[in-house]
Amino acid sequence: MNFELTDEFILTAIPVDTVRAIERVDMITKIEYRPSQLTKLQQLFDQMSDLELDMVKSISADVSYTKDNSFTSLSQSSQKNIVDASYKYLRYLEKDKSRDSATDKRSFALLRLLNSYPPTVEAVTRRKPISPENSHLSKQVSCSVGERLDNSYLNIGFRMAFHKLEDNQHGFLQGAQINMANFQIKTNRNQTTRLHRLDLVDIFSLPPRTDFFNLLSRVYTGLETQSVAGVDELVSHVSGGVGVSYELWRNQGMKNKIDPSIGILAGFLHHFASISVRIEYSDMRFDNNIERKSLPTNITLR
Prior knowledge:
By secondary structure, the chain is an alpha+beta fold. It has helices at 15-24, 37-46, 50-61, 69-72, 76-93, 101-115; strands at 140-148, 151-163, 176-188, 193-205, 217-228, 231-240, 245-246, 261-271, 275-286, 291-294, 297-301.
């Protein structure tokens, strides 16, 4: 039996969409969930007490803490869980770094101690999440209306791929955003129509911060309409997680082709039963006394 699976992929072939195409013709016979190293650690930590978590941090930094009375007085099963978590956390911290002898010695000592305990059945409950192919679709069409400087406008947008913070988070990492080829066309009351923005790549990672994980990062580049010296101009930009922004060509009011800036970005994100609310505040200051402030608010119905 032959199946045509490529007809729908004219411009893009996003991995999760290719899985959906295979699923539609009933070619999937088995699904096996394999959690990532980070997911395994997070689920392990979720089932530990605050005291045990403190010991994990201490032991992963200094194996000699396993000789402390507060640790040795615990049951063998508790000791083994703590040592196991300490070893896995230490390996996770070193996954993107070059190996060093001090870390290797700590890892070996923890592994040897772990093997000294009698074998037990793993007690961690693996929560199987919703599969990405069963979540929301990758492409999105949007429409918004508003008024700015006594001029009403209509924005029509299209997102090629694939997930933003306001979307239904089932099937995706919490606090993760990956958008590509997202553009908006803006029509004003005076009947002028122009490209309002084009996001080439917008990657945002802001999972809930804990004592163990702090992975905040952002990469954002594209074209966006900004008010420069009182005039709306379409400017290019590259932004990093620390708030640095670059203008790639000369604009009215800007002295240079590239003007660095520094600023802050804070916000609120919450998923309710049927809507998502995202509020952000940003304040960027360039070295030529130009300041950019924004307070976008997004309410998404699902």
